[in-house]
Design a protein that fits this description.
The complex is a heterodimer of chains A (155) and B (170).
Chain A lengths: L5 E7 L3 H9 L1 H7 L3 E4 L7 E6 L2 E12 L3 E8 L11 E10 L2 E9 L6 H23 L17
Helix pairs in contact in A: 1-2, 2-3
Chain B lengths: L6 E10 L3 H9 L1 H7 L4 E4 L6 E5 L5 E11 L3 E5 L7 H5 L2 E10 L2 E10 L5 H24 L11 H9 L6
Antiparallel strand pairs in B: 1-7, 2-3, 3-4, 4-5, 5-6, 6-7
Helix pairs in contact in B: 4-5
Classes of the chains: A alpha+beta (155), B alpha+beta (170).
Chain lengths: 155, 170
């Protein structure tokens, strides 16, 4: 049996380089990722910290950084009492040129059965990646109130 | 056919800077759907039991379904039956539900493809490939005025699985 995972695909009218930059720079991520900073130098082996409104929410380590094709890191939640005790998961972004578009495939994997974190990320990623697509295509991210995602503890 | 027998096989959620009314239009009007749905035209008779048809760009019948639930602009469920010989007999009907909700200034759209029996990953690869492309294009159209040009063919693994089941594809 394969372990539970979340997979999401979207097509964005941009270049792989611009998408890579958006996935690795706080300047962008603050705008589309609910005011989250991505603290890392994105070199293999380096630490990563996600900091939302000044609070560290998730930590990880960069596993792959093959610019602008493939980025992966470990991902462990540190805030919620239940989710913080789950083992580390893995986030993989694959960026593929598709005509004048980029096909972005996100796989968030290695969850345990009944994972609380999986429920949260399954609701969170579509909003984050839709806002990222809007930002790259229109110059404006979406304004989605966190409460609209119905993730326990995320207001 | 009993809706209770169907289980979600593919769920895709996307947020769009638009209004529920516009997203509803996109799923029910031919002129609109042709733009983002790569030339495919939706012809929907918006009443329970009404016809729900999708025509391919050459005018041929691609989806031959019926409206199952219709609650504008919030929820539309249709039988999304691909008009290929023997497909329904062998795979059963497909249900597609669109849920449209306001989420702040944006609209949360959730597409649920459901079946009344387990289907292989090979068969489901068609929907897993198609929906993200169609709905990404819809988002671009509503937000920028321009749809996406996504060039793709049906997944080979799906075509081979259909052939192995004796289902003829165009």
């Amino acid at each position: 049996m394969s372990r539970p995972e979340f997979v999401y695909v979207t097509y964005i009218e941009t270049t792989p380089e611009k998408l890579w930059q958006a996935l690795t720079s706080s300047e962008f991520s603050r705008r589309y990722w609910f005011n989250t900073e991505l603290q890392s130098d994105f070199k293999v082996g380096s630490p990563l910290a996600l900091v939302m409104n000044g609070t560290n929410t998730d930590v990880g380590e960069i596993l792959e950084a093959d610019l602008p094709r493939r980025l992966s890191y470990t991902f462990r939640h540190v805030l919620d009492e239940t989710a913080r005790n789950e083992p580390p998961t893995k986030v993989v972004f694959i960026l593929e040129k598709h005509g004048n578009l980029v096909k972005l495939t996100l796989t968030h994997e290695n969850f345990t059965e009944g994972s609380k974190l999986l429920d949260g990320v399954s609701k969170g990623w579509p909003a984050i990646l839709a806002s990222l697509k809007s930002l790259l295509e229109t110059g404006h991210p979406l304004t989605i109130p966190p409460a609209a995602l119905a993730i326990e503890g995320f207001q | 056919m009993n809706v209770q027998d169907f289980r979600p096989a593919i769920v895709y959620t996307i947020y769009i800077a638009s209004t529920p009314a516009k997203v509803w239009q996109a799923f029910t009007e031919a002129e609109f759907s042709r733009k983002y749905f790569f030339g495919f035209a939706v012809e929907a008779e918006l009443t329970v039991g009404g016809a729900f048809i999708v025509r391919a760009p050459d005018g041929s019948l691609h989806i031959d379904g019926k409206v199952i639930e219709c609650d504008p602009p919030k929820r539309l469920t249709v039988t999304w039956n691909v008009n290929w010989p023997d497909l329904i007999e062998k795979l059963g009907p497909t249900l597609v539900t669109y849920e449209i909700e306001q989420a702040g200034d944006a609209v949360r759209l959730t597409m649920i493809e459901a079946h009344d029996r387990p289907l292989s990953d090979d068969i489901l690869s068609g929907g897993r490939q198609g929906w993200p492309a169609i709905l990404s294009s819809l988002k671009s159209l509503l937000e920028t005025g321009q749809p996406l040009v996504v060039k793709m063919a049906p997944p080979r693994r799906m075509l081979e699985a259909l052939k192995a089941m004796g289902i003829a594809t165009p």
